[in-house]
Amino acid sequence: MAKLFPSHVLTLFPGFVAWNASTTVMVFANTEETATEKIMLKAVCRKRQIPPLGWPMKSQVLKTYQHILALAFSVSEVNRDPVLLTNTTLGFRIYGDNSDAKRTYESSLSLLSTRGEVAPNYQCDSRDKLFSVIGGLSSKSSMQMAYLFGILKIPQLGYGSFSPVEREMLPSFFRIDPNEVSQYVGLVQLLLHFRWNWIGLITSDDDTGENFIRTLMPMLTKNDICVSSVEMINERLMKRLATNLFRKSLIKWQSKAMIISVDYKEVAVLIYKLEFLRKDFRPSRVRVWIVTTRWDFAALGAQMHWKELEYFHGALSFRVHTSDVQGFNKFLLALNPARPEGDVFLRNWWQMAFNCWFPIAGQTSSKRKCTGKEKLEDLPPSVFETRMTGHSYTMYNAIYSVAHALHAMYSLRPTRAMMREGKKPLAIQPWQILSFLRNIRFNNSAGDEVSFTDNSVVGSSGYDLLNWIYFQNESTALVKVGRMDPGAPQDAANCAQCPEDQYPSKDQDQCIAKKINFLSYHEALGFVLASLALSLSLITSLILVTFIKNKDTPIVRANNRNLTYILLVSLLLCFLCSFLFIGQPKKVTCLLRQMAFGITFSLAISSILAKTVTVVLAFMATKPGNVARKLLKTQLASTIVLVCSLIQAVICAIWLATSPPFPNLDFYSMAVEIVVECNEGSVTMFYSVLSYMGFLAVISFMVAFLARKLPDSFNEAKFITFSMLVFCSVWVSFVPTYLSTKGKFMVAVEIFSILASGAGLLGCIFLPKCYIILLRPNLNSREHLIRKKYQGA
Hints:
The protein is of the alpha/beta class. 47% of the residues lie in helices and 15% in strands.
């Protein structure tokens, strides 16, 4: 179905980790000050010292570690680029804000000072030059940082939305996450898709929660979605909330869907309360939980027991969309706690993630020892993902945005008179980067375009919709089931179904003609099969000519020479009938292909059965008075061939008379192709032909197996046994393979089975005889025959 979607389209497929640490990106460059300036700076910098910042708590380390790795990976990748920043090296320092205003301000002030000092606007250490700040997951922490850094016009790339008035006051802030309004639009579309029109809302009791309610409620009202309850909670309130009051709140949560927009701390307390009241509140009472990007599954999975996550089995979660960045997965899998290479977080994170410990002298633990060989891919996605998450991806784009802005500025420096006369270039100041950052436009390594308009990232790919799955073996999975794309094309409010000979485009905005699908001589598969059929036909013809030229030799005359000719001719026809299956199906070819295949193969197997029966009768005729002598004098072999072939011919005639095959166009088996096929008419008759052929093959195999050790100079029974074993193996494997394929590949499977089984009969029965006729003619003599008979007796 072709669809012309409105913007902010939610696409469901058939069927976030949040970051709470501020980071800084710095360019390491040498700066020069006069002697007077150095003395003044040293005096100011001795005024106050602060304790080291930037070492997050354990839960923070576990929660934000991939973002730290994404930062390190991005900076390392930029520094290895021989073109982007030729004579400049990027470095970084990491600070944890812990959602605490005081801590955030202290961290921000320390970035404007020498390490370990608080002396804003004075920097005693000339090694680290601050050029930009990346951080602040929430609007609140981003704003706290932005007011401070905006005074000095230091670029800040962070998260969260501001009002137009606030945006005017913060010109140096650049937003790098998608606009949450598009997430709310996708949320409403999701509710409408599943017709969930009776919902409840749970959000945090702060500015972010109020903004969530203020923005979402008008959208719900406009689309006739009723809200049964609105719960605004915070961590402290949830901890103090009495059990009885909480039980009353649960009664209001009996909706078709509950939408949660809270951070990981509030979720942890919420789950604790739900677990405490397990008898009163079962997971099945809420049909589905829908979670916004504020919820961090990684932080939750690290703190909760697996059993507690059962509440959210089947939950749907929005997450910032990410693309696969080449090399990042390899970078993660190369982590080795035995060689952390300056990563001060790795060993602590490893111990928490794998629930083990690295032995320390004088300390003991009940946990198992870490070997360092644990595999990251074995961790559940609720703890760690081995692909770049949405917020790690925005981190990656932020680092490259700064790098490209610096590259653009360095490229223009000679033309802007930024060099002293005959001396070193002027030092770059952070405020000089702003104009370049606003105007950058580049494609990252994943192929996505990154740019900024009105200080907000453009080209963001929106959100992914994930399905949270909890298994009874206490494992979890996050399955991508949909996509929210703010950049989807505009024009129509309804859908028009494409004609059956067309299919919708990827954007579902037009219908495209389907390609014709049949096995053609012009494609590689058809050419190879046709060449193979032709080669086997020629080989069979050469063998037939060889046997005719040597018709009076004992090896040809043995076991009925006429049956040998019939078998070779029937195998030749079998190989030639393969050409009826190649090419565009027509009425004549559809009528002939299965009939020719069934009758010729039945003729071949019947002749084999007759030859085997002849061997048995010849042995029995050596005994005096045995009736086998009389049977050999009759036309028993010819009768077997005629009757067995005639039965198959009658089955085919009934097929043609009742429901014959016919050419057909299949529009539905394949999404973008029309299959031109021969409809078999009656599937029952098709499998009747196969079944009868299989019956003859089994009988021939059994008789040949019993006669394989009879004494005779040219006893074919042993070779027939192997040939029928190959034949039966091919056609037993044919049925499931044929039923599991579609289009031209079904035809190719049948052709291959015809050629393989025919080649098995030809090779096992006739190659040994051709070897004697052509290469060992001394064995093809009457004297040798008499000697072999005497030895056998």
